[in-house]
Each structure stands twice: as C-alpha cells, then as structure tokens.
Fold this protein.
Amino acid sequence: MKAALIVLWTLAAGVVLFLIVRRRIDRAIRDLERSAAERPQDDRDGPPPP
C-alpha cells in the first residue's frame, strides 16, 4: 500500500512538472512570435532591399 502511494505521488508530481514546463515553453514561443511580429522589416536578417 505504501509503495502504491509513493508511485501515485511521484506520478502526480511528474504530471504537474510537465504542465508547468509546457506552459513556460508555450509562453516563450508566444513571446518570440510577438517580438518577431513587432520588429520592422528593415531590422530582420538578410540582404538589404535594392
């Protein structure tokens, strides 16, 4: 019984950590997309327009 509780608590902790990390990754990607959309075209990498 004690082993089952340890396994369940470990599984619950893993799920919580997974959700936290996934939320942070989603937020970072959203922030990167927002900052890329706000940058003017001239500041982006690449050859200058003719």
